[in-house]
């Protein structure tokens, strides 16, 4: 873990990545158990040091790709074991069984495209669990995740916190992403990132026309309805990114987390804070301990939040996504252990593993330099890159998935 007050960011030059370390003065106590590093937080650097790509490559290798591959393989192996075991946990996190017809009625679903695609046929595995709920808390899962670092595992999180949190994820809605099947044959999803490309895009209606709309972090809507739409079916976040977004984007009108009766929240279990907040949210009590101690979950999710409002991404899904889709060179760097796909990437890949058709709006494209960091900035700001994400790798992935006809990427 990095000491509190240290943020790591990564500035992109034309083609190559150049990493810069933003060290805020206090470098004191070492903080275990959570990342104090944020992906989407503001603030000005007090000190900055840059390394060339060459230097990055020379930094010590802390997170070996082999370890990552093992994590993904473990996940698949456990999935297979569970499927052959007598009371196996169902892995598809889509619809309640009563609504799941055998085979998708959707013609030309992305799953059928993936199956015949030479590249992505190998990479996608629709058997890896997307969501986690009470039934997953078994000795087998505990043993395999307890030593793996967050967010890909549970290292540093106590058995009692995990068991008490997951025990509460016992509503059938926790195991299915979609609570109800839409009227058409295909489940059409729009995932809306917060990229500046949406400013002036007039895509609001197209976005709202989808059955389900995913949003994340600082998803400002008011004043941008014509560009980004108004519908929100899912809001995805980690406690860290959610709270940072409320601070960083308050000035742009992001003053509260989206709330509505139909809206569901997708927790990214990036560390202990997420499990504690999730548990407190379901119980309707202030967070009892840790960094967010005393925080009222109703402040974020409304007073009526119960278990069925929440979905929790499975750590195995995060490991699989990193290994198969977003295995970054950053993982070899000194702060490689902090690397994880961005919140937007995790939401988009969640949609790609659950929806029949996916359109991505506000995600990074080749022309990102023409646009501001976010669609709601009033003065153009360059896209800020952080060393715990690899936005250029994500850009390549979105472009490629678009070219292979697996999803539609909004570009201009
Ligand atoms: C879920 O767990 C809570 C707390 O243990 C319990 O009160 C409730 O009855 C359970 N609900 C279901 C549907 O099993
Ligand atoms: C947003 O778009 C408008 C024109 O559509 C432009 O004038 C403005 O500068 C843009 N804002 C940013 C921050 O790029």
From TrEMBL:
It comes from the Eukaryota. Keywords: Disulfide bond, Glycoprotein, Glycosyltransferase, Golgi apparatus, Membrane, Signal-anchor, Transferase, Transmembrane, Transmembrane helix. It catalyses: a 3-O-[N-acetyl-alpha-neuraminyl-(2->3)-beta-D-galactosyl-(1->3)-N-acetyl-alpha-D-galactosaminyl]-L-threonyl-[protein] + CMP-N-acetyl-beta-neuraminate = a 3-O-{alpha-Neu5Ac-(2->3)-beta-D-Gal-(1->3)-[alpha-Neu5Ac-(2->6)]-alpha-D-GalNAc}-L-threonyl-[protein] + CMP + H(+); a beta-D-galactosyl-(1->3)-N-acetyl-alpha-D-galactosaminyl derivative + CMP-N-acetyl-beta-neuraminate = a beta-D-galactosyl-(1->3)-[N-acetyl-alpha-neuraminyl-(2->6)]-N-acetyl-alpha-D-galactosaminyl derivative + CMP + H(+); a 3-O-[N-acetyl-alpha-D-galactosaminyl]-L-threonyl-[protein] + CMP-N-acetyl-beta-neuraminate = a 3-O-[N-acetyl-alpha-neuraminosyl-(2->6)-N-acetyl-alpha-D-galactosaminyl]-L-threonyl-[protein] + CMP + H(+). Gene3D superfamilies: Glycosyl transferase family 29. Pfam families: Glyco_transf_29. GO terms for molecular function: alpha-N-acetylgalactosaminide alpha-2,6-sialyltransferase activity. The keyword Transmembrane applies. It is an enzyme of class 2 (transferase). This is alpha-N-acetylgalactosaminide alpha-2,6-sialyltransferase. It comes from Microcaecilia unicolor.
């Amino acid at each position: 873990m990095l000491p509190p007050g240290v943020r790591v960011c990564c500035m992109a030059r034309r083609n190559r990545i150049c990493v810069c370390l933003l060290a805020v003065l206090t470098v004191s106590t070492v903080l275990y158990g959570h990342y104090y590093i944020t992906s989407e937080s503001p603030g000005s650097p007090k000190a900055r040091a840059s390394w060339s790509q060459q230097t990055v490559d020379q930094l010590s290798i802390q997170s070996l790709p082999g370890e990552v591959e093992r994590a993904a393989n473990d996940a698949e192996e456990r999935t297979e074991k569970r499927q052959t075991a007598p009371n196996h946990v169902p892995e598809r996190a889509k619809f309640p069984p009563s609504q799941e017809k055998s085979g998708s009625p959707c013609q030309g679903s992305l799953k059928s495209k993936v199956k015949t695609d030479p590249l992505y046929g190998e990479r996608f595995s629709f058997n890896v669990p997307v969501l986690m709920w009470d039934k997953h808390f078994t000795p087998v899962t505990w043993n395999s995740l307890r030593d793996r670092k967050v967010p890909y595992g549970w290292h540093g999180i106590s058995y009692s916190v995990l068991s008490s949190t997951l025990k509460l994820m016992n509503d059938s809605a926790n195991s299915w992403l979609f609570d109800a099947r839409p009227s058409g044959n295909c489940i059409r999803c729009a995932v809306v990132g917060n990229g500046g490309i949406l400013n002036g895009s007039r895509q609001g209606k197209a976005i709202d026309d989808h059955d389900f709309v995913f949003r994340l972090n600082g998803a400002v809507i008011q004043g941008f309805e014509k560009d980004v739409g108004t519908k929100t079916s899912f809001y995805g976040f980690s406690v860290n990114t959610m709270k940072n977004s409320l601070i960083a984007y308050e000035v742009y009108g992001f003053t509260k987390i989206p709330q509505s009766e139909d809206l569901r929240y997708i927790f990214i279990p990036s560390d202990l804070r997420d499990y504690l907040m999730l548990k407190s949210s379901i119980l309707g009590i202030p967070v009892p301990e840790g960094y967010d101690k005393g925080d009222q979950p109703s402040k974020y999710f409304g007073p009526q939040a119960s278990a069925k409002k929440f979905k929790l991404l499975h750590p195995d899904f995060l490991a699989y996504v990193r290994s198969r889709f977003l295995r970054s060179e950053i993982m070899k760097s000194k702060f490689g252990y902090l690397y994880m796909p961005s919140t937007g990437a995790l939401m988009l890949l969640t949609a790609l593993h659950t929806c029949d058709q996916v359109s991505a709006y506000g995600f990074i494209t080749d022309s990102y330099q023409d646009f501001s960091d976010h669609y709601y900035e009033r003065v153009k700001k360059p896209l800020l890159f952080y060393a715990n994400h690899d936005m250029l790798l994500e850009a390549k992935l979105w472009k490629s998935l678009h070219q292979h006809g697996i999803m539609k990427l909004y570009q201009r």
